[in-house]
Amino acid sequence: MSRVAIVTDSASDLTTEQARAAGIRIVPLEVTFGSQRFKAGVDLTTEAFWERMVAPDAPFPTTAAASPGDFRAIFSEMFDAGADAIVCVNVAGTLSGTIKSATIAREMLADREIHVVDSTSASMGEGMLALLGAEVAAAGSGAAEIGERMRDRAADLNVFVALDTLEYLRKGGRISGTQAAIGGFLSVKPIITIKDGAVDTADRVRTRSKARERVLELLTQRPVERLAILYTTSTPEEVQAFKDEVVGRVPGGVDAGRVTVNPVGPSVGPHLGPGCLGGVVLYAR
Prior knowledge:
With about 280 residues, the chain is an alpha/beta fold. It has eleven helices and 13 strands. The protein has helices at about 15-20, 45-55, 70-80, 100-110, 125-140, 145-155, 165-170, 175-185, 210-220, 235-250, 270, and strands at about 5-10, 25, 30-35, 35-40, 60-65, 85-90, 115-120, 155-160, 190-195, 200-205, 225-230, 260-265, 275-285. The strands form three sheets. It has a six-stranded mixed β-sheet with strand order 10-9-8-13-11-12, sandwiched between helices. The protein has a four-stranded parallel β-sheet with strand order 2-1-6-7, sandwiched between helices. The longest helix is centred in the middle third of the chain and has 15 residues, at about 125-140. The two termini are about 30 Å apart.
């Protein structure tokens, strides 16, 4: 393994395979359905989460930040495995208290080198920075340099996702009831963006097909270095067709090795809901 270990949390939506291949450790957030509590990706897979989420009369799931103890345990494991330093990139501090837990865990291990980075994003916005960090670590860079590289490139991230409704963001407390009511009253398909730690509405259109087209336009308005397709309950055929269209429209093209497809998992899914389709871009410089 690299002498610098990369850690992130489950709001990154990295798949188990992606994280394992890159040597990234994932600290799970908590997800609760009624009286049942789970650790995302540990005892609740993405597939099982969506089965519960769309089940008739299912309780609305809530999420909670990972604990400082969870981070400390992973940090200690990485050091025991031979890491000299750790860089931990987390979901935006404006969206979750998870980064506070990571910071407390760092203070618990004050004699070790641990850098905590706010991705200012979520889902694969965060995941892309973790993958970038793993690549830079493998090339031999030091932990401080990797952390600064992540913070620098966070400015080039953007998320564009078409939703069926704003109701899930409202229930999760990420937007106001007024914002959600306006969207519902107009019977529109909202397109949200996550930029600089803020969730905002990028556009509102009338139909699902128009929402899909608008997201395509937003994702391909500039040259792209990395691309991740995000979805919740779309079929594999729909996701593949969307991916092909995005890749085909990116100005100047995009390296196939820099394109991933990521289902939205239990840590972010409760806020987006079923029917979500979109992507994350790391703009080229």
